[in-house]
Write a structure and sequence with these properties.
It comes from Neovison vison (American mink). It is found in: Nucleus, Nucleolus. The protein is 8% helix and 48% strand. The protein is mainly β. Among the domains are: 92 residues, no CATH class; 132 residues, 7 Propeller (Methylamine Dehydrogenase, Chain H); 151 residues, Methylamine Dehydrogenase, Chain H. It has a 4-stranded antiparallel β-sheet with strand order 1-56-55-54, covered by helices on one side. Strands 2-3-4-5 form a 4-stranded antiparallel β-sheet, with no helix packed on it. The two termini are 46 Å apart.
Length: 762
């Protein structure tokens, strides 16, 4: 044994099963000169570009590690700004798919990104309460705007004036003069978080959405021109401290605080539009033409409004006037001839008119829309259940009816995948969730079959790979034929969840374990098919092992002599398969064993528990060889790599880890998932691992030929941890934040720190 054991590195190979993730927003992008056909959606750390017409993914903008939280296309349609969970921003070219520009200036997730009209500047808002204006052309930060007390929800440039308006969860709307970079007005008219903000009518009106049913409208009058005419007294110097006093609203306080800076503009509340939704506004937007306004809450309804032009409003008012005159004439005394004075009030409802609602098939997470010159409105939605839907609408029609034009559904499940299996030839992957079973081609990652099922918990390919079996939450076994995609049979196997399945090594049958405290043995059989002359696959139960506790997991030993059964009382009991007599009890976990596996030679059994530990036991005497603290949360799945004593574990702590059961070494951690991992499957060849997570993604990992040396791996781990702690230290980002002009060094890295250390030594 002179040589150290050689391990091979597994690397991330692909993210699939994901249509769009919840944290960011969906946007239309222009590709190949086509508007309204392609959409960009956040997909964990990546951005996927989907073709709505074909339902195909045509481009992936590769992220690093951080989840995408915000998307904004540039006005010329050539670029996409992408904001991430850690506060970084990257600008991708939609032509090349490269993200060559990176902006590091925020300390927390990006919540808002908006370009100015020409696309030369980008305003970002973040959970860290700052807004930053970036110079896209020179790839540098211009200035940081501090003043909000909570996350920024929106930041918008004005078209004509060098101003920015921001809204926040601190209930404030702030106006910033970008020439002096300070806040000259704080609107305090909202009593709750301001979730949405749009400018309409040539920036003369601001509409806000908050935590109630009211969309508030504010009229904005720009006073620079007016003030110059009225009074020649000297203007207040612009160099006042950037911390303009934030007047807190008292009961019935003014809608805005009056400061001498009202020279620039005044805001007057113009009224409200009542939404039908009773909850908070989640997204509020206006299309590029400024004609259509739309918003949604936490439900599945988008409310669409039309903003009428001055001429349309005038026409409407004339009609109203005619009506009023007619009425007045009728009511007045007969004889009088002179004109009767009538007046009609113009309300906000006369200017902003409700068009219709678009009802989607599930809760809306985000939306985007385009109003075409032909008058058609195209709206696209990212839904909460891993689905993209698009609708078309003619807002000017007498009774506008939304029509669903496309949906992207095949490439993912509507709910979390709870079980994964590989076919015996390593080519097909099965994934099953609460509503369907999908079969994927591992090489192309295309979904080749989708079959409706009940809530799936466990699965396997029947030997021969022509059928699959799944076990469900209601205790049923469901058998499917892959060629036809048909459900062959549903068998009531257990009263309560069927938690676990184990195929017998002789491949003639399998065993099931359930919440009804029983283990059942089944044989495959061929039965006469009513519909054809052919026989079809079925199963018959042969034996039952009754226990005192719920069964969580079952595993056959490779020689089929022993059966391991994990119970709710935190023990694992080993029985002889032929007599069902008790052989061993593995006792030591503090919480139930959720997952376990037996090595190919039957020598070892590894158990993973909700107590976060993995224990390795000898199967001859049931002695515990080692207890490993494996994950920072429950160990959800465990599987040996075929023909080895190496095994993988998946945890609720978002990590997959590989271990050596002989040396008790942690070999490598596979990071990538952003939420708890429910299950994994190792291919029969050991070359592939596939995993599923609450982040809705399935991930494929591939074994490379690259040797992995533990000492080097540990060293890299330490450097990564150090790098992370260094990067958290404050970095100057915009000019004037610290002395010296070298303000755009970005995040500190090991390289820069080492360089600094070398200089100090010299």
């Amino acid at each position: 044994m002179g040589l150290t054991k050689q391990y091979l590195r597994y690397v991330a190979s692909a993210v699939f099963g994901l249509i769009g993730s919840q944290k960011g927003n969906i946007v239309f992008v222009t590709l190949r000169g086509e508007k309204g056909r392609y959409v960009a959606v956040p997909a964990c750390e990546h951005v996927f570009i989907w073709d709505l017409r074909k339902g195909e993914k045509i481009l992936i903008l590769q992220g690093l590690k951080q989840e995408v939280t915000c998307l904004c296309p540039s006005p010329d349609g050539l670029h996409l700004a992408v904001g991430y969970e850690d506060g970084s921003i990257r600008i991708f070219s939609l032509l090349s798919g490269e993200g060559n520009v990176t902006f590091n200036g925020h300390k927390a997730a990006i919540t808002s990104l908006k370009y100015d009209q020409l696309g030369g500047r980008l305003a970002s808002g973040s959970k860290d309460t700052d807004a930053i204006v970036w110079d896209v052309i020179n790839e540098s930060g211009l200035y940081r705007l501090k003043g909000h007390k909570d996350a920024i929800t929106q930041a918008l440039f004005l078209r004509e004036k060098n101003l920015l308006v921001t809204s926040g969860k601190d209930t404030m709307v702030k106006w910033w003069d970008l020439d002096t970079q300070h806040c000259f007005k704080t609107m305090v008219g909202h009593r709750t978080e301001v979730w949405g903000l749009v400018l309409v009518s040539e920036d003369k009106r601001l509409i806000t959405g908050a935590s109630d049913s009211e969309l508030r409208a504010w009229d904005i009058a720009y006073l620079q021109e007016v003030a110059d005419l009225e009074e020649p007294e000297p203007k207040k110097s612009k160099g006042t401290s950037p911390e303009i006093q934030d007047t807190q609203p008292e009961d019935g306080a003014l809608e805005t605080d009056e400061t001498p800076e009202d020279r620039i503009l005044t805001c007057r509340k113009a009224g409200s539009i009542m939404r039908e939704g009773k909850d908070r506004v989640v997204n509020l937007a206006v299309d590029r033409t400024g004609r259509i306004l739309a918003c949604h809450g936490t439900d599945s309804v988008l409310e669409v409004f039309c903003i009428l032009s001055k001429a349309e409003v005038q026409k409407k008012m004339d009609k109203k006037m005619k009506k009023a005159r007619k009425k007045a004439k009728l009511n007045s005394s007969k004889g009088e001839e002179e004109d009767i004075e009538v007046s009609v009030e113009m309300t906000l409802q006369d200017e902003i008119q409700r068009v219709t609602n678009i009802k989607t098939s599930a809760k809306i997470k985000s939306f985007d829309f385009i109003h075409s010159p032909q008058g058609e409105l195209k709206a696209v939605f990212l839904l909460q259940n891993n689905l993209v839907e698009s609708y078309s609408l003619q807002p000017s029609a007498p009774a506008p009816q939304p029509v669903r034009t496309s949906r992207i559904t095949i490439g993912g499940h509507r709910s979390d995948v709870r079980t994964l299996s590989f076919s015996s030839d390593n080519i097909a992957v099965l994934s099953a969730a609460a509503e369907s079973v999908k079969i994927w081609n591992r090489a192309t990652l295309q979904c080749i079959r989708t079959m409706i099922c009940e809530y799936a918990l466990c699965s396997f390919f029947v030997p021969g790979d022509r059928q699959v079996v799944i076990g469900t939450k209601t205790g049923k076994l469901q058998l499917y034929d892959l060629a036809s995609g048909n459900l062959l049979e549903t068998i009531d196997a257990h009263d309560g969840a069927l938690w676990s399945l184990s195929l017998s090594p002789d491949q003639r049958g399998f065993v099931t374990g359930g919440a009804d405290k029983s283990v059942k043995f089944w044989d495959f059989e061929l039965v006469k098919d009513e519909n054809s002359t052919q026989k079809r696959l079925s199963v018959k139960q042969t034996r039952t092992l009754q226990l005192d506790e719920d069964v969580l997991c079952v595993r056959y030993s490779p020689n089929q002599k022993l059966l391991a059964v994990s119970l709710l009382d935190c023990t694992v009991k080993i029985f002889y398969v032929d007599t069902l007599k008790f052989f061993l009890s593995l006792y030591g976990h503090k919480l139930p064993v959720i997952c376990m596996d037996i090595s190919y030679d039957g020598a070892l059994i590894a158990t993973g528990s909700a107590d976060r530990n993995v224990k390795i036991w000898g199967l001859d005497f049931g002695d515990c060889h080692k207890s490993l603290f494996a994950h920072d949360d429950s160990v959800m799945y465990l599987q040996f790599v075929p023909k080895s004593h190496l095994f993988f574990t998946a945890g609720k702590d978002h990590k997959i880890k590989q271990w050596d059961a002989d040396k008790f070494e942690h070999i490598q951690t596979l990071e990538g998932h952003h939420q708890e991992i429910w299950c994994l499957a190792v291919s029969p060849s050991g070359d592939y691992v596939v995993s599923s997570s609450h982040d809705k993604s399935l991930r494929l990992w591939e074994r490379t030929r690259e040797p992995l040396i533990l000492e080097e791996e540990r060293e890299m781990q330490r450097e990564a941890e150090y790098e992370e702690s260094v990067a958290k230290e404050d970095q100057p980002v915009v000019p004037g934040e610290t002395q010296g002009d070298n303000y755009f060094t970005g995040k500190k890295t090991i390289e820069t720190v080492k360089a600094a250390e070398r200089i100090m030594e010299a």
